[in-house]
User: Fold this.
Amino acid sequence: MLSKLKSLFKRKKNRSIEEYDIDEKDLNIVLSKGAILVDVRSEQEYEEGHMEGAILLPEYDIKKKASDLLPDKNKYIVVYCSSGTRSKKAQEELNNMGYTKVYNLYNGYQNY
Assistant:
């Protein structure tokens, strides 16, 4: 039990908010300015519940579908998943594809 708690604290400590991570307060600001909210979880997870207004673009489909679903590479985009791990990968992939304003929801959907 003690080792499990230690690993949880260690993990939490290692995952600090980074430059292109946003929290709930900043999320509301960028959404009010027209940002696109993108759920990068699986279709099943999306159907079980998602943030209002989010479009589904699973992390594993980004290379195939991003250009169709997100044609404007200069528009603000906020990606999220359950915990922030897949969305961090999705953020990096979108950046590599030329998207310029991609933000990751810090700690993911689990907090909303």
About this structure: The chain has five helices and five strands. Confidence is low (pLDDT under 50) at residues 1-14. The chain has one domain: 20-111.
